[in-house]
Amino acid sequence: MRILITNDDGINAPGLEVLDAIAREIAGDGGEVWTVAPAFEQSGVAHMISYTHPTMIAELGPRRFAAEGSPADCVLAGLHDVLGDTRPDLILSGVNRGNNSAENALYSGTLGAALEGALQSVPSIALSQFYGPGNARLDDPFEAARTHGAETVRRLLAHDAWASGDHTIFYNVNFPPIPAAEVKGLAAAPQGIRAGVHHTVEAQISPSGRKFLWMRGGDQRSPAPPGTDAALNLEGYVSITPMRADLTAHDRLAALEDALR
Prior knowledge:
Elements (H helix, E strand, L loop, with lengths): L1 E5 L7 H14 L4 E7 L18 E5 L2 E4 L3 H12 L7 E8 L11 H11 L4 E6 L13 H17 L10 E6 L9 E4 L11 E6 L5 E6 L12 H6 L2 E7 L6 H11 L1
Parallel strand pairs: 1-2, 1-5, 2-4, 5-6, 6-7, 8-11
Antiparallel strand pairs: 3-4, 7-11, 9-10
């Protein structure tokens, strides 16, 4: 199996090393793992592509490349430049430092890469490691992802439900913020939303008197509806959410048609 891996934390992020180990286990002795990852951290860029300026790419080693662009740029670079005519069988993005459950999914560059892979009709999975008191001080905070990542990917590959309508399905996987031995299992989950959680800004004045704004996220421990991804993560489960690029609110179409008559 040929696997393309990327992330949004950057080419030197520890989570990418975890993902590389997961990918090599999945690919097997005769497989190939190719890395095209951002040269610098690209957290929070979602599905952005560098449409208005070129992206420099550099080869750092065998099958290892860094691109000065977003995670979606890296997927495009991998598919249409680095790998050329030999398309990958699978794209893996992550392992993100921090969860991409609930509303975080909308901002995530990790998911942006998987979304681009799905738009390019390649099976794609985003993987993220929830951080919390149960794992932040472990010698390996990515222990849950490192231990359970390969089996999670295998289960999804065996499930073989990727093509669905006009938009290829991709998967959002979040590992719980606990030691690997305490993980309770895998759980299919819808995307949740944490009550009252949203991004804000914090203003600071520089020594030169200029104002700068820092973007701040909300409390990741805030409750989410039972059975949703963030809630299950905090209960000790690996959440798996099938997603697609169709943003249409299908449940509202009929009412809108009535209103427009």
